[in-house]
Amino acid sequence: MVTKAVLSNLVVLALSMFPGAAMAQRSSAAGYNEQRINQMQQSVTELARRIEQLQKQDQQLQQQLEKMRASYEHRLDRLEKGNVGKAPPVRTRQPKP
């Protein structure tokens, strides 16, 4: 069984024998890193857009809530002061002759 240390030494030896391979590996790593950075930038942009949407939605909900509170307070004040119009009388059906 080959250990990790032996494999690591073999990789170092191979890379020293083929400097182009080491350069390709570094180039590949740089390409991968660049790709990951681009993906993260896209994610940050999308998250920023989503945060703006949620903030706008939150503001709209806060405005709706404030309107509801004002309406309820007004209604309660009217009830407490007795300034509520009376409901129309309930009409019952008369049997037909």
Describe the structure.
The chain has helices at residues 4-17, 19-81. Helix 1 packs across helix 2. It is rod-shaped. It is built from 2 helices and no strands. The relative contact order is 0.04. The longest helix is centred in the middle third of the chain and has 63 residues, at 19-81. It has a domain at 16-79. It is mainly α and 97 residues long. Helix content is 79%, strand content 0%.
**SS strand fraction:** under 5%
Cα distance spanning the termini: 107 Å
Overall strand count: 0
Largest sheet: none
The geometry reads as rod-shaped
SSE ordering: HH
Mean pLDDT: 80
Helix content: over 70%
Nearest-angstrom radius of gyration?
A: 37 Å
Helix-strand makeup class: mainly alpha
**Unreliable runs:** none
- Assembly state (oligomeric): single chain
Helices, by number, come to 2
Q: What's the short story on this structure?
A:
By secondary structure, this protein is mainly alpha-helical. Helices cover 79% and strands 0% of the residues.
Q: Can you give keywords for this protein?
A:
single chain, 97 residues, mainly alpha, 79% helix
List the helices and strands and how they pair.
Blueprint: H1 4-17, H2 19-81
Helix pairs in contact: 1-2
